[in-house]
Amino acid sequence: MTALRVVATLAFTLIVSQFYRTAVSPIAPEVMRDLSLTPEQLGLVTSAFFITFAAMQIPVGMMLDRFGPRRTVSGLLLFAVLGALQFAHARDFGGILAGQLLLGLGCSGVYMGGLVAAARWFPADRFATIAAFIVAFSNMGTLLSATPLLAAVEAIGWRDTYTWLAVITGGLAALVLLSVRDAPADHPFHARRREGLREVLAGTAAVFRDRRLLLLLPMAFVSYPAMLVVRALWAGPYLADVHGLDGTARGDVILYMSMAVVAGILFYGPLDRRFDTRKWVVVAGTVVTVGLLTALALLPEAPLWLAAALLVAFILCTSHYVLIVPHGKAFFPERLVGRTVTAVNLVVFVGVAALQSATGILVGAFPEAAGGGAPEIAYRAVFAFLALCMIVALALYLRSEDVKPSEEKNRALQAD
Q: pLDDT at residue 275 above 80?
């Protein structure tokens, strides 16, 4: 019961992190209007969350290995409280940028804290399945950032909505502090000698020097970031500019996309044990994803039903990203689990920040459409750019080493 309580608490807390990282896209037209933001500034605002999130991954990994998820996650969430309040009271580009930076800092330890807890509370071969559960459950935050968020914004405005979110985030920080336990009583984490700074840094360097991990990182840089660039940044403006949808209508489409995230994660999570491979499941998912992005890029003036279907299918297939962190974790011993998963996650969120900024520049390079907003060709260019990025990442990932879940399980049993 304790294992389930620990993982469920962190998964529940991750809801708010998932909400914050995807909330800007649905309300982007309102925020851009109220603060007079350009497309380039919107790209920077959304990427700001991921810039601080990424910058914190190495320190977070060190803290998780040394102090455990309980203190690390609860302490960092206090910065998210400050970020939500700053976002709510922003009056210009600089103010809302500062809010996003603080939100990224505050949420930087939640997902990784959940994965470290899962690695310590459950058998190694079930890690991907538990990780998929954590992400799938936490995507309630993604669902809430679609139609429910827009309904709240229409009722009380986006500023008051973020003020209430600050209150909720503070309550979750207290919940983590009271409910989470870092590892089972007999786990080596409790008996392990605390590493000094030099040892912590040496372990981190060992993770980043490993060639097996380096070949995996390009896929981490592209897979989840491509999905998030579409879901959290450009889906809202695309549906508004190209298909003329109002807030509620585009929220409905984004809600279906959010549901596809959950369905895709739950679909991919157990496949590594079913087929005894992670690498080839990711390869298959990437090939289909590239095809869907290519269709979105090449089809001119696609009807709404087709565009929406392709967007939902793209999100569903790109959910293979849930197997990439377990793939990287399998290369290293348990004592490095925090630094390993955060190393992969660092690259993921550097990718998010880079792709969001790059696509913001790409969209801004096109002249404004006659009715305002970006023209259709700008969004098709974004889809083509993401497809190209995935092709390059796949070419490198094909050279990576596969670690079968059965082998990982046997290795853990021998260690015990």
A: yes
